[in-house]
Specification:
Helix content: 25-40%
Strand content: 25-35%
Structural class: alpha+beta
Largest sheet: 10 strands, mixed
Number of strands: 39
Number of helices: 22
Distance between the termini: 57 Å
Radius of gyration: 32 Å
């Protein structure tokens, strides 16, 4: 036997090695590391005498390729070993890509373009878990039709098997690829975030394995393609580049283009030993405003600081007033002196070391020109780091009462109608959270609060700032808790405020008033095991005691189903089964079930739900009983412990040719991943929650005539929630209600055939009815969901 190594290419953690072999025997290949660990290797026949070998590149110092000539009885007649150093593979690959470009196109990725007798790993999600040691990888394992069930294993850097690896598999489905029957099995794998690893999808018999490697370059590649963009907004280089481009654009703008006769802003800045360079930059950012109807009030509480005092004495602009105090009265007291002296129509709160975007006041004045009834305005913001770069933009929600009751997400740049500011003032008993207390008292008086969905405020990160770490002002945590509790007490709301492990983030426990009854409505067709899991989890894990379950039987065909109904009615005293006799219509079935409900609240629930947290129902009732709430939804997890639902938002159409529409927020995050600005973990108002677990009061349901039966399967929950919002009520996402959702288990996919046709028609109805959301976007997600 003659055997020589030809060209070598590498890519995505895999080595592609061409081998020239001459032998009258059959040839087989093996690979081992320098420590003798067997490594996976697959062979592809290219032409007579030439093979392409594919093997993962791990952290071994070398790979020994063993070439064996085997007779018809499987006995090895000849063996040759070719050892390749990792460094050798690296440099030969670089050289070969330059020298043999045409060959590289043939050899590279041959395992990914081959379908005959080939298994593939097709990733769709790559998400690093914050504050953890894991990366979530999701995708499909695609196999030939004859493969029974793929095996997914994880190799460590030395090639050894990771023994505690436990992937999750979904249900296998049949697909056609270019007319070739294939199978697809969804998977979720948790791969350690540090080090080199390799997923190996293998099967039985002669089908070749697939490799997905995780070395640093491959991880970067997967992250760029499969990390859902809306979950991570903190890439410093990316945002700094966007900010710099905006700055260059504004440099050539003329303030004359932004002049109009609008309101006067009084900008209040309390000074306390402010570093002079910061002071100059702050004032310059006000001078640079395109909208010029402003006054700047600088309240100096440290006149003994001679450097600061001398700098203030140099200011000669009549629009800038310096108010010198005899002593420091605290942040609230100092700010109040500025509020008292202000003469503008709106008071603007501005920190002494931060910066304004040149368009800030123009954007605010434009809001008030369009709607003079607005009482307060705020905007998005980012952070100015110590290197002078803008980082970590905070794309905020529109006015969101329940999110505000979790933390002060509004912060900067707050402008308030002057009479409100002068009446409310800041309360020094809440110093450290005086702005939070002020906001909570403000929203008790008005909900005419506008959000400018643009980054117009730059919050400086310095060693003493709250921006750098909330721990720098630990006293603020308790002040914020007291402010929120006082807010509930003033409103007569029976609620208890709890601190959390995250400073200045709060958790509210609402008291359930009385003992209202909940009617749980569950449509079902066959799916006995699924329904039993749902009912058993409700019975075993729910600590709320006043509920009934109405299962709406929908055209089941299996005798086993009807036997189960009889047995389940005997097992569960809360259960009633009613029979729908019409064609399948999810909206009509739920409306039918509601006719038999005797509860004060209706809980629409899919049969593929499983309860996790015992407090789920009580918690949902506690929100629904508020008069301003029309719907409460839950946090739903896939069975692989990643997020399936954490609220739904409407994607804006950039033009009429774009689709837009509803999308689940934070899908695929780890269950403990708090998400962008912690929003996956916080109670908040949203536009929509899924009908898979949706609670609403009987009164609201009847007022809106239930679900719209024009939406036979899809979007009935979207439409219902948007109608609730149109009625002036809130839709609340409640992550304390935590459940598993085995999505679409009993109904099937909407992606093909008649289901797809029906889905598109219902999507058209939604688009026509709620065009303002398609064009105007979602007020609760703003630039967060639309930024490219």
């Amino acid at each position: 036997m003659r055997a020589t190594i030809g060209t070598i290419f590498r890519g995505q953690g895999v080595a592609y090695i061409t081998v020239n072999v001459e032998s009258c025997w059959s040839i087989r290949f093996k690979a081992v590391s320098e420590s003798g660990i067997d490594l996976p290797i697959e062979s592809y026949f290219e032409k007579v005498g030439r093979r392409i070998l594919v093997t993962p590149l791990l952290e071994t110092s070398s790979v020994s390729v063993i070439i064996e000539a085997v007779d018809e009885d499987g006995i090895v007649q000849d063996r040759k070993t070719k050892t390749l150093k990792r460094s050798q593979i690296k440099w030969l690959s670089r050289l070969n890509y330059k020298t043999f470009r045409t060959e590289a196109a043939i050899v590279r990725d041959i395992d990914r373009v081959t379908y005959s007798k080939q298994i593939h790993i097709n990733p769709t999600i790559y998400l690093e878990v914050p504050d953890g040691n894991w990366t979530i990888v999701k995708g499909m394992i695609c196999t030939p039709e004859n493969e029974e069930k793929p095996l997914l294993t994880l190799l460590a850097g030395d090639g050894g098997l990771v023994k505690d690896f436990d992937p999750y598999f979904g249900s296998t489905s049949y697909v056609l690829h270019d007319g070739i029957p294939r199978k697809e099995t969804p998977f979720t794998a948790r791969v350690p975030s540090n080090g080199t690893y390799c997923l190996v999808a293998s099967g039985s018999g002669e089908n070749r394995s697939a490799f997905m490697c995780f070395d640093p370059p491959s991880r970067e590649y997967y992250s760029s393609l499969f990390d859902p963009r809306m979950y991570r907004r903190s890439a410093p280089q990316r945002w700094s580049g966007i900010s710099e481009a905006r700055g260059r654009k504004l440099e050539s703008a003329s303030s004359e283009d932004y002049e109009f006769d609008g309101v006067m802003f009084s900008i209040i800045v309390p000074l306390y030993n402010t570093p002079v360079p910061f002071l100059r930059e702050m004032i310059d950012s006000v001078y640079s405003q395109f909208y010029q109807r402003w006054e700047l009030l600088l309240v100096n509480s440290t006149p003994e600081n001679s450097e600061l005092t001398e700098e203030l004495q140099r200011i000669c602009d009549s629009r800038v007033r310096v108010i010198t105090l005899d002593k420091n009265y605290g942040i609230a007291g100092n700010t109040n002196r500025g509020i008292e002296a202000a003469s503008g129509d709106y008071i603007v709160f501005f920190d002494h070391d931060d910066l304004l975007d040149p368009m800030a006041l123009f954007e605010y004045a434009s809001v008030l020109r369009d709607d003079a009834d607005v009482d307060a305005i705020y905007c998005d913001e980012d952070f100015l780091n110590e290197e002078g770069s803008f980082v970590a933009p905070h794309f905020k929600s529109g006015f969101n009462l329940d999110l505000l009751r979790c933390h002060n997400y509004i912060t900067h740049l707050l402008a308030v109608r002057a009479p409100f500011a002068k009446e409310l003032r800041l309360d020094s008993s809440f110093d450290g959270a005086q702005d939070y207390d002020f906001l909570l008292r403000l929203v008790e008086r008005t909900d005419k609060i506008a959000h400018v969905s643009k980054v117009l405020y730059h919050w400086r990160i310095s060693d003493s700032s709250t921006a750098k770490s909330a721990d720098n002002k630990g006293y603020a945590d308790d002040a914020g808790r007291r402010a929120l509790q006082a807010h509930y007490n003033r409103l007569g709301i029976a609620a208890r405020v709890e601190t959390t492990k995250n400073p200045c983030f709060y958790h509210t426990v609402y008291e359930v008033l009385g003992n209202p009854k909940v009617s749980v409505i569950i449509p079902n067709k066959d799916s006995v095991a699924v329904l039993d899991r749902c009912l058993s989890s409700i019975a075993d894990k729910t600590d709320y005691n006043n509920f009934e379950v109405i299962v709406v039987e929908n055209n089941s065909e299996s005798p086993e189903t009807f036997d189960y109904y009889q047995n389940a009615s005997d097992r569960f005293s809360f259960l009633r089964v009613v029979t729908w006799k019409g064609p399948f219509n999810y909206s009509a079935i739920n409306n039918f079930g509601a006719r038999f409900a005797t509860g004060d609240y209706y809980l629409l629930l899919n049969n593929d739900i499983e309860v996790i947290e015992p407090d789920w129902m009580r918690s949902m009732v506690s929100y629904c009983q508020r008069g301003d709430v029309g719907v409460a939804g839950a946090k739903l997890l896939y069975p692989d412990d990643t997020v399936q639902h954490a609220g739904v938002f409407m994607i804006t159409c950039g033009s009429v040719s774009e689709l837009g529409g509803p999308a689940h927020a934070f899908t695929h995050l780890d269950r403990n991943d708090a998400g962008y600005m912690r929003r996956a973990s916080l109670v908040q108002d949203v536009s929509i929650v899924t009908g898979a677990c949706l609670m609403t009061s009987r009164d609201v349901f009847e007022e809106l005539n239930g679900l719209d039966e024009d939406f036979v399967v899809a979007f009935n929950d979207v439409d219902y929630c948007l109608r609730v919002r149109k009625s002036g009520r809130l839709v609340v996402y409640n992550p304390d209600a935590l459940l598993y959702h085995y999505e679409s288990f009993s109904r099937g996919s909407d992606s093909s055939g008649k289901n797809a046709e029906r889905f598109i028609k219902e999507q058209g109805k939604l688009r026509a009815r709620w065009s303002e959301y398609y064009l105007g976007g979602d007020p609760y997600f703003g630039a967060y969901a639309t930024m490219p």
